[in-house]
Amino acid sequence: MSNRVTAGEVSRHFSDFLTRVHDHRETFVIVRGGEELGRLVPPALPPGMTARGLLDLLQAEWPDAEYARDLERVQEEQSQLPS
Question: What are the structural domain ranges in the chain?
Fold first, then answer.
């Protein structure tokens, strides 16, 4: 559903409208004198990642040995939950 807003309102509160479009995926029809001038719409959602894309990402961004040591250190520092 689109909300109709005036060009003046958008001009005065542009940042707020961008936040609503981005954060809440709202769509706005901008009108002046009853005539539609344009729309503010969220971008299309990106397509899902393919298995090949995931594999490429993991190979390119695989954590180094330091990462594994950091994880072990964090786990050791965690307090034990009571049994």
Answer: 2-40
